Amino acid sequence: MLAGMCCIFSHVEAEESRVLVSAVGKVSVRPDMAEFAVVVKSDAKTSEKAASETADKYRSVQHALRTAGVASEDATSATYTVSPRWEWDQSLGRSVLKGYTARHTIMVKVRNLGLIGKAIDASVQGGADEVQNISFSSSRYESLRQQALAAAVENAHRDAEIMAKAAGGHLGQLQEAVINEQPQRVRPYQDVMAMKAAPEAVPTEIAPSEQEIAVTVSTRWRFIGASSR
After folding, report:
1. Across all residues in the chain, what is the average pLDDT?
2. Residue ranges of domains in the chain, CATH in brackets
3. Alpha helices in 68-171 (DSSP H)
4. Is 37 buried (19+), middle (13-18) or exposed (0-12) by CB count in 10 A?
5. Model pTM above 0.85
6. Under a CB-based contact definition with an 8 Å cutoff, are residues 51 and 37 in contact?
């Protein structure tokens, strides 16, 4: 669905015979892809033990994701850390080393939204400690962005014509058009702290909302006054 918005600012520069207009073009889209982060982590007395336990969880989650229909190239490592875990000892008056934490984050892309709940459940049942930052996008983003851009220019042209007529003249050629900023996808997300799920747990359901792609343009047109005709 295309939508236009009235110009953000506009005015006629009589001495320079120019009409300046900014306008917005919008396209609504229902997302068809999703992405989320899966975290596996372990605490242990030694760094080797923490890393080993986290590696076991990682392999288990990856196996579960394959079973859920997520390809290996769509479940890739984002971050991996092994760090010391310090705690303050009141009696000693200083921090003491209590062990180590290994943490591995996997970014999971789901190309079929019908499988998003299944992929999340598989991650949790496979041993994930956290599921975070579920975001949504559209595989048609670029073509929809172009539609929004075209709508923005059309809206600017319409407003410029109205302004020129109201000022007692008519609109000339377009002299300049600039996209004010790089359009960004609106990607609603949810943060989910995963709990260990029993096999009989109720399946997770995710319902993404409709998104909006908006593009803003600034335009400059020639103004032809009555005396110039």
Report:
1. 86
2. 2-30+141-185+213-228 (3.30.110), 33-137 (3.30.70.2970)
3. 116-125, 141-166
4. buried
5. no
6. no
